[in-house]
Amino acid sequence: MIPAQWLTVAAVAGGILLVAEALYLLLRKRVPRFRLKLLYHLWALSLVALAALQTLGIDLLGSTLGGIASTVALLLTTLVVYALVDALILQQPWGKDQGPLVPKLARDVLRLGLLIAVGLFAATEILDQPVGAVLVSSTVLSAVIGLALQDTLKNIFSGMALDLEKPFHPGDWLVIEGGVRAQVVDMSWRSTHLRTKEGLDIYEPNANLSVSRLINYGSGERPFAVEIRIGLPYGVPPAEVKEVLREAALSAPGALDRPSVRVLLESFDDHAITYFMRVWTRRTSNVSGFIDGVNSRIWYQLKRHGIDIPFPIRTIHMHEAPDMEQQRQGKALRKASELFSGLDIFQELDDEVVRQLAASSQRKLFDAGEVLVREGEEGDSLFVVERGAVRVTKSDPEAEGKHVDLAILEEGAFFGEMSLLTGEPRSATVIASDHCGVLVLTKQAVATTLEADPRIAESLSRALAARRQDTMETLEDHRDRDAAATSIEDEQTFLRRIRLFFSLS
Ligand code: CMP
Fold this sequence. Notes:
Blueprint: H1 3-30, H2 38-55, H3 64-90, H4 104-126, H5 131-137, H6 139-165, E1 173-176, E2 180-187, E3 191-196, E4 201-205, H7 206-211, E5 215-218, E6 224-232, H8 238-251, E7 262-268, E8 273-281, H9 287-304, H10 324-341, H11 351-360, E9 362-366, E10 371-373, E11 381-387, E12 389-395, E13 403-410, E14 414-415, H12 417-422, E15 429-432, E16 436-442, H13 443-452, H14 456-474, H15 481-487, H16 491-501
Helix pairs in contact: 1-2, 2-3, 3-4, 8-9, 10-11, 11-13, 14-16
The structure holds adenosine-3',5'-cyclic-monophosphate.
């Protein structure tokens, strides 16, 4: 061994390694999408090996050692060149906030194809192996590989087709064949990862997805409509029914007013007129919850308008039984009387007056989130919470669109007295906190009670003044406290106003 030759080998190898590593540092800095690490260093070493063999006079194409080194270097060079083209061209985005020019799936397939082609070339041309002939002539091998890869290839190509066509994106809600509703998590070579509302993961093969019919609800960026059918009585005019249904649908959580709700009379059926509704929402993640909201609001709204949902007509065998309806009404009246006689404001009243008041009240039910009283609207009824709770809120005078919570009123509490007693517009909005029942008293019923015992006006004006005071205190952060304090009306003022409004002596 001549030491001078080794020195040359070391110098050449060192030089190549230095240049390759310097290039690596430059690429890492300048080309952020270039992600090769270990493979790059192996490539640099393969170049060093080639240079060393060349310097030592070993034939790179003729000898076995040279052939193997050349093949390895060629394969690694292919990978490095591909990684560069990938980072500089294929991965470049189409535009701002957009995906890469060539989808990942297609890039992966391209790289694999390129490696196989270069590998075959190296095997036949450098290593002198009759690989091509073996591959082509071996029908058994071709059949085995072909059959083994059949499904995989089908999935890969389907995945590429889906990736190019983009019928859905991660985050979209799909209904796949069989009616399963699930959200797209991501896509891989073989399958698309979906997750159902129940938290179950589905890995649907791409080949299945590309041939089956998909319904894509999107991820909430665009509205979609749900369709609802309902049978309602012949006795109520369609215009009234449509108005009630429209109002109910619009009040459902998540319902949009644009595109507008459509209510159509669909058909005259055996026991009812069928109405068809189309209601729009963006709640892709909870369609059944949205339908439940609309249907519930319809029930409450119909109930309050006295419209029954009819049942199919049946033959019924009657037998003697106590009058259930009368019993039910008697029970409701007793409960209302008990509730009223427990209220501070009615403490002074005779039992008979309380009973009359309870008899004149009307029971109404509201779904959670429904508005019972809206700030600024006219109002001439008093409400007593019979079941559940309501939330009183008022618009913030300092911040437009914001609301300040004033109180939660529970069973036995009353509200709506301010407008009823003074004739002013509603001073606050009252919303059902959960499913709740209220007893509604009209102005007429309250007037009769005030006539029966004018002392009630005093307790009412006391309650009114106390609430005004509360409201002002709650809003004090939003206003000048002194100005607020001077604007509060006292009990006596309210009493005078109530007497005037109800023409009491
Ligand atoms: P009214 O103005 O007719 O309609 C809204 C109702 O909210 C109002 O009557 C009161 O009954 C009630 N309300 C207003 N302010 C308060 C408050 N601070 N605390 C409790 N209830 C209130």
